[in-house]
Specification:
This protein has about 450 residues and is of the alpha+beta class. It has 13 helices and 5 strands. It has a 5-stranded mixed sheet with strand order 1-2-3-5-4, with helices on one face. Strand 4 and strand 5 form a beta hairpin.
């Protein structure tokens, strides 16, 4: 008798080989009844064998008590039942033993062999006993009754317990299989839940990175130009009032553009889900309002960021305007375009624009006044861009040192390009300047 499943095994608290006390009590009761039966049947056996009655009774008690181990050693129980069949003892033990044997997980050939031995043993003993009774005159039926009684008796004592045991064993194995399958499905569901949580956390981290990258691109370039124009405004305020007015207007325009882009992005983030109603004020003694789960907030932010990034953004058609803003800030910028311009996917154009924008921002920060070359090449299956600046003048580089830098510009450009399957390279040039190059596949 086997059982599977952690909970099913943990429930066993019976003695020795019994899983439960209920099974131990049942087997003990069956063994007691079988011992009493065999002891009663041992009296006529002792008379026929010519031995003392006490020997027959003790032999019957010992033989019948073997049924106690039917769950542990069912084969031994069946063999003992077959062995005492000639003495016309152990009918209950034979029936219960065959049932237990058939319900166990034993090879079918062993079950068939022992069942066949029990069948033929019962048939032979019944045939001999009935023939003897007819010879003594106890039965007056015809000769046909002897084989009929032998066959029906042997089948009646062997087939029902054997078939019932096979059915119960098959049903038990089915239940064990279903239990194991349920445990397996529970483990798989738990594993899937853990993986889903990991994927959600990874998605939240990715969206945080994308939001930070967008915010950096929007703020860094505009504010850097504003700082450059403010410095120029301070330098020419007294000498050239008209130029100072133009610089002030440029600073205002750039500040308004930066604020507009920030508002658009923050508006998209806030529209990720409907705002919850504002709760009414509570007394100081009242319990606090439960906070929104962090996972829900993270999911809403991730979805909103995806819409923000995938929505309308800068494109290559605005590249000339971007270069013009840097030129208006005092930078000498040359823009050259090779190949025939054609529309690309929104994310490709947005990434190409951001790479040029961040590269120009870095020139403003670290090489103010340096001459810069912006090259854009439209190729068959890709688009390439390069921003290279010459060594900055000494005075300009000294003033540029006051511009703060977070150190995330090159990292953000690399992440953008590699996410689209492109190649990004940056580093100083032999002439003392700096070069940023990127190649992005046209079809993504």
């Amino acid at each position: 008798m086997t059982s599977t499943g952690e909970e099913h095994r943990a429930a066993g608290d019976g003695p020795w080989w019994w899983a439960r006390w209920r099974g131990a009590v049942l087997d003990g009761s069956l063994a007691l009844v079988s011992a009493l039966e065999c002891a009663a049947e041992g009296i006529p056996f002792a008379r026929d064998a010519g031995v003392p009655l006490a020997v027959g009774v003790v032999f019957g008690l010992l033989a019948g008590s073997v049924l106690l181990i039917r769950r542990r050693w069912p084969i031994a129980v069946v063999l003992v039942a077959i062995a005492i069949t000639p003495a016309q003892m152990g009918f209950l033990m034979g029936i219960v033993g065959l049932y237990t044997l058939a319900s166990c997980e034993l090879p079918r050939r062993i079950i068939a062999a022992l069942a066949g031995m029990s069948l033929f043993g019962t048939m032979i003993v019944t045939f001999v006993r009935v023939r003897q009774d007819m010879a003594r005159g106890d039965l007056t039926l015809g000769d046909w009754f002897v084989p009929f009684a032998a066959v029906t008796t042997s089948l009646g004592l062997t087939a029902p317990p054997l078939l019932l045991g096979l059915y119960v064993g098959a049903r038990r194995r089915l239940m064990e299989s279903l239990r194991e399958r349920a445990d397996s499905l529970e483990r798989e569901l738990q594993l899937l839940a853990e993986r889903a949580e990991e994927r959600a956390e990874w998605a939240r981290n990715e969206e945080r990175t994308r939001i930070a990258r967008e915010m950096h691109d929007v703020v860094a370039h505009r504010v850097s130009l504003m700082v450059v124009h403010a410095a120029a405004l301070q330098a020419v305020a007294r000498k050239d009032p008209e130029k100072a007015v133009r610089n002030a207007a440029l600073v205002g325009d750039m500040g308004r553009q930066a604020l507009t882009e920030l508002r658009e992005m923050l508006g998209v983030l806030r529209s990720g889900e409907e705002r919850p109603p504002v709760p009414a004020p509570r007394p100081a003694s009242a319990s606090p309002v439960p906070s929104v789960p962090l996972a829900a907030v993270g999911a809403a932010v991730a979805a909103a960021a995806s819409r923000a990034v995938e929505g309308e953004g800068p494109s290559l058609s605005e590249l000339e305007e971007l270069v013009g803003q840097s030129a208006a800030a005092g930078m000498v910028v040359n823009l050259s375009v090779e190949g025939e311009a054609r529309p690309y996917a929104a994310e490709v154009e947005q990434t190409a624009y951001r790479v040029v924008q961040e590269a120009l921002t870095n020139v403003h920060k670290h090489a103010a006044g340096a001459k810069t070359h912006v090259r854009l090449a439209h190729r068959v299956s890709e688009i390439a861009m390069q921003v290279e600046n010459e060594p900055p003048p000494e005075l300009a580089s000294a003033s540029a040192a006051r511009l703060p830098s977070g150190g995330n510009g090159l990292l953000g450009m690399r992440e953008r390009v590699t996410a689209l399957g492109g190649v990004f390279v940056s580093g100083p040039t032999d002439a003392g300047g700096f070069r940023v190059s990127a190649v992005i596949p046209a079809a993504t």
